[in-house]
Amino acid sequence: MLSSVLITILVISVLVVVHEFGHFFTARRFGVTVHEFSVGFGPLLAQKERQGIKYSLRAVPLGGFCKIAGMDIALEGEAKEKAKPGERVFYELPLYQKILIILAGPVNNLLLALLTFIFIAAVIGLPDQVEEKAVIGFVEPKSPAFEAGLSPGDEIVEINGEPVQRWEDLGEIVQQSPAEPMVFTVRRGENYFTKEITPFYDPAIGAGRIGIMRAYTVKRLPFLQAVSYGVYSTGYGIKAIIVSVYQMMAGRERAEFLGPVGLVGAVDQALQSGLHFLFSLVTSINLFLGLFNLLPVPLPLLDGGWIVILLLERLRGKEFSAEQKAVAQMVGMLVIMTFFLIITFGDIGSIIRRLTR
């Protein structure tokens, strides 16, 4: 589990640094002064200055930040200071350049997702030959199967006393029985045990599911086919996340957001399942991070929210006051903290159910 925690921290750090590098690169392209680009937060461990920019390594390895001249002032409504000689500040830029700098972070995440999909197809390999028996390849976090304690490599041999010979037999029984408690007989190595699991109804497929994927071997694609796969998968992933969030907001689908605790559990499952699952999980997180930051709600802390605020200022012909932006910052922080606490408690509850069943 320690390795899962360390890999989770590394994944989060890489994705956030990639996001911040998008802001950094675009700001530099527009000639905006950048004071610091940091990997990590908190106490300073090392620092090197080059062409007036401080490149830092800090003690808390959870992402990083990019300090762009005048960006905090423009977005948070602080009093504007006169730019220093030779300094170009964010708040003096044309609107389209401000928006492009803000957009660059999420866009970088989407580009990384595309490259990762290509890497998966060309280097790691895609599912090819599937296991005929009902052998589990991956268990979804927070799912009924996860909370029942099932793990990759387990084979389901019976459901309610009926033999399960093939994966298709398992799928047929589960899909036809949403919300019905069933007794699963599971083989793990040389040992057998039973678990009562209740499938949930998944509106996306119109049937019951317990949250497992079958085991399989992988096959690598030629580079051009891998590129085609990457483009298709990125587009499909973006569409699937948007549809899924809409369905959840409409109450038509289970809310399955993962907080830090749940993310560690997901990484742990993926490590047991193989590199394909691990990199696919990282790509899904990356896509969600990029799209979540683009949500067009007028709340600070989200890139999409800042873009909406900038557009509203242009429509009303003047900036919001420092007090108005401070209130928006506070509301945004409270909303995101509440969301964070809800999903974290959900993660902990799911893990407790898994450990106590």
Characterization of this structure:
The protein has 357 residues and is α+β, with helices and mostly antiparallel strands. The chain has helices spanning 2-29, 71-76, 95-124, 144-147, 167-175, 223-249, 260-273, 275-293, 303-316, 322-356, and strands at 34-50, 53-68, 126-130, 136-139, 155-159, 162-163, 182-188, 191-197, 200-202, 207-209, 212-214, 216-219. The chain has 2 domains: 2-124 and 285-353, no CATH class; 128-219, Pdz3 Domain (Roll). It contains 10 helices and 12 strands. The protein has a 4-stranded antiparallel sheet with strand order 6-5-7-8, with no helix packed on it. Strands 1-2 form a two-stranded antiparallel ribbon. Helix 1 crosses helix 3 (95-124). The mean pLDDT is 83.
Strand-helix topology:
Blueprint (H helix, E strand, L loop, with lengths): L1 H28 L4 E17 L2 E16 L2 H6 L18 H30 L1 E5 L5 E4 L4 H4 L7 E5 L2 E2 L3 H9 L6 E7 L2 E7 L2 E3 L4 E3 L2 E3 L1 E4 L3 H27 L10 H14 L1 H19 L9 H14 L5 H35 L1
Antiparallel strand pairs: 1-2, 3-12, 4-11, 5-6, 5-7, 7-8, 9-10
Helix pairs in contact: 1-3, 1-7, 3-6, 3-8, 3-9, 6-8, 7-8, 7-10
Biggest beta sheet summary: 4 strands, antiparallel
- Strand order in the largest sheet: 6-5-7-8
Distance between the ends: 19 Å
Approximately what portion of the residues adopt beta-strand conformation?
15-25%
Shape: elongated
Order of helices and strands: HEEHHEEHEEHEEEEEEHHHHH
How many β-strands, per DSSP? 12
Our count of helices gives 10
| Global Rg | 24 Å
Low-confidence stretches: none
The chain-level structural class is alpha+beta
Average pLDDT, rounded to a whole number, is 83
Helix % is 40-55%
